[in-house]
Amino acid sequence: MFALQAFTGLSVFSILMLMALGLAIVFGLMGVINMAHGELMAMGAYATYGTSVLFEAYFPSLMSIYFIVGVVLAFFATSVFGYFLERSLIQFLYKRPLDTMLATWGVGLILQQLYRQFINPRPVEVPTASWLQGVWQVSEDVSFPMSRIFIVGLAFLTATLVYLFLYRTRRGLLIRAVTQNRGMSGAIGINQKRVDAYTFALGCGLAGIAGSSFTMLASTAPDTGQAYIVDTFIVVVFGGVESLLGTIMSAFFIGQMQTWFEFYLSGSMARAGILLLVIAVLYFRPNGLFATKVRR
Amino acid sequence: MSDRNRRKFIKTSAMAAAATALPMPFIWPKGASAATVKMGILHSLTGTIAIAEKSVVDSELLAVEEINNAGGVMGQQIEAVIEDGASDWPTFAEKARKLIEKDKVASVMGCYTSASRKAVLPVFEKLKGLLYYPTYYEGLEISPNIMYTAQEATQSSIAATEWLYENRGKSFFLVGSDYIWPRTTIKLCKITLDRLGGTVAGENYYPLGHIEFSSAINKIKATKPDVIVNCVVGGSNVAFFKQLKAAGIIDAGTTVLSLAVSEEEVSGIGSENTAGTLTCMGYFQSLSNPTNEKYVSAFKKKYGANRVTGDTLECAYIAVHLWAMAAEKAQSFDVEKVVAASSGLEIDAPEGKVKFHTDNHHLWKHARIGEFLPDGQAKMLYESPLIEPDPFPKL
Predict the structure, then answer these.
(1) Do A123 and B268 touch (CB under 8 A)?
(2) Considering CB atoms only, which of A135, A141, A227 is closest to B209?
(3) Which of A66, A108, B5, B244 is paired with A243 by a 20 to 30 Å CA distance?
(4) Edge-to-edge, what's the strand order for the sheet holding B77-84?
(5) Domains defined for chain B, CATH in brackets
(6) What is the ipTM, given to two decimal places?
(7) Contacts of residue B64, Cβ cutoff 8 Å, sequence gap at least 6
(8) Does B36 reach chain A within 8 Å, measured CB to CB?
(9) Tens of pLDDT along B75-100?
(10) Which residue from B206, B218, B243 is facing A217, i.e. has the nearest CB?
(11) How many A×B Cβ pairs under 8 Å?
């Protein structure tokens, strides 16, 4: 039983981490409160759905690997959308956080209605590849669904790639420079507009990956994003807005708490419990659990 | 911008604003003749519940069309006035008032969730309107101004619990969304289990829209129940079934019976995930009788071959017919006379012959338990005799 619960905790953690990474980059590093994050996840999920439909129609023999193509496509589709969103809307609102909130919320509503009008008002079902449907039977009582193992793997892969990108590439260096000191980085000649645009695109792309992997767990409906967005914000705020590591730690903490609370309490009570805990922690540490100490 | 242009601009934008504000209500059908009677349709066309309610409207419009083609009610064509409750309970109440006071509709077909029905109930009672409610619900209500055309609890959850106890096992795991319908339904299940001598292995509620059921699944694995009764509602069901399936619980032979999953929902959940699970409804699309075959083929002809019917759709369809029959019998659209004429009124429905109770506004119904097949249709395992509706059961 303990093994099952521990694995569930790990799985919830990886899901929360996938959801929160993109938002942490956009919210934490750029200070943009992206209320359309949930809809971007839905966009990733719809991209995966589209891939599955295409593969079913044209390459039925390759159905077993369509999902991997779907994840990659979801990343590109949402990041391209994110890029244009930043160029056409967000870049004018950097100094007005409340307005970004309203604007991105509006974008979210527009996206929802577009999904409803042009894709399907009902939830769509993305078929799970046969090798992801199985169960890994460890012992008689302990078994792990393959789809969950895949999500855990995907989450860790994504987190590693994001880390490598931010800390081992030149572009990542530029992003960190702009985040740490906007004025100085501008003074030494970094093109901040470009950096902002691709940082935002990266954050959106990560939302796409998250949305894509959720098609294995739940359905995709126009308002799917709403189910994820609250959890995502809780994770990011709880972890401390400016640190990616904090986001990951907080995803781990909340994932474990949620799993154990749900095991001993009812689902609704578990949720109330977690929110109470978050409120208590934020009361004593207003900047989140892992706030980086910076001089202002 | 010159003054003249500005004036023109104001004029056009005002017109555009008016045009965007206009789309509701649609009047249907257009060009109705002088002798018409208005009937309201009040469902969510937007918002979260729209998924379920949109096709209910389709089914009601099909019934209206049939009645009109056959000459109308007392020679009068029905004119349907459609309002959008927008998945928001106060909006439902406001639109109900508008339909009764302004449109002066003779009756309203409407509501899906119990919450929306509770919101419009005082409006209908105060303004002496008449509501036909087409969704299976938890019972515990008889309003003089509401006719209930779907099952109440004794005809679904209690009947299902008794059947499961006799045929599938003694220990039950109960899981549901966290609001009035699942809570009441599960309470009735538990009381029934107590009476029979069964045991409750676990009881769990999740917020609407919840998508992470792995802890519930671990609990199910730990307690090893014979039967899982599923009162999860709406989109959460997709997550619930996918995760149950992935955990291997459905294939391991545990009986899963859902009380809020019909053929409609299955098309969203994915029929490969529900295959082998049970459901308890009053109607299945697969029922074979001439009335149902006529209904299903008319529905598919009007809305497309890939559409499916389901319990709520059928109950909404017969609601329109029941109202027309009662008005015909009373020779009046007066609410009190229509209600009086409904007492004991029998209809040859797609679900078989059903009739209104003489005094509690509910229908005598069959409880049917079906097993979902891989194609998403249900195969009937059990059909109860007609059960007398008893919205306030003695337990």
Answers:
(1) yes
(2) A227
(3) A108
(4) B26-28, B77-84, B36-43, B107-110, B131-133, B146-148
(5) 1-151+287-365 (3.40.50.2300), 154-286+368-383 (3.40.50.2300)
(6) 0.75
(7) B28, B39, B78, B80, B320
(8) no
(9) 999 999 999 998 888 999 999 999 99
(10) B243
(11) 107
